[in-house]
């Protein structure tokens, strides 16, 4: 596939001598699945070269700790979650101990992560489920994880990928969803639909690393408000869908 930069100018064959703007990859017409897979493979290669060590930035020492930390990370930075989980796990180190925590005390401990009442309810329900259904252990199964109270597909994929090393799907958080849309790998704002598009075009052995690397890109270069496309390793492969419109609306 020919790769074209946004400002590249080619000669128009129908009117010799007249320059025209070249199209960006995935930016005009409907890209076939085969073409999208090929482009996605090259995106993975560039992400690997730029962010070789990208990994989960939540602190955890066990699948249980990662599960609880991921529930806490909704609408909150991983840095803030890491400040809370140390004291949390020192006080309630296991699922059965945490399941028995007084709700008000748990709420106070996690208050700074935001939405603390809903999160406390999710954590207590999740820990009761772990204790009653799984002997206090985190199940190594996406299907079993999503049946736990307060655990959605994203949280389950985080645990399966980063705690167990199993690629059951692609974690679609706010960074991954936004950048995947800009890259033209999905057009869906809904995380489940976006994940379906991503697993269809990404090699399975890239599912876990892709999310970690895109999150790193989203924190540093392809930020929500102002993507720094000139500094982006994916620039030659990106149609920047929605980027111009976002700038115009500011
Ligand atoms: S920074 Fe620009 S070129 Fe890079 S992924 Fe985001 S929108 Fe595409």
Structure description:
With 250 residues, this protein is mainly alpha-helical. The chain folds into two domains: 1-7 and 31-51 and 153-250, Helix-hairpin-Helix base-excision DNA repair enzymes (C-terminal) (Endonuclease Iii, domain 2); 63-137, Orthogonal Bundle (Endonuclease III, domain 1). The chain is 52% helix and 2% strand. The chain has twelve helices and two strands. The protein has helices at residues 33-50, 63-72, 78-91, 95-99, 103-110, 116-134, 142-146, 153-163, 174-182, 191-201, 207-220, 243-249, and strands at residues 9-11, 19-21. The protein has a two-stranded antiparallel ribbon. Strand 1 and strand 2 form a beta hairpin. The longest helix has 19 residues, at 116-134. Iron/sulfur cluster is lined by residues 179, 182-183, 221-222, 227-229, 232, 234-235, 238, 240, 243.
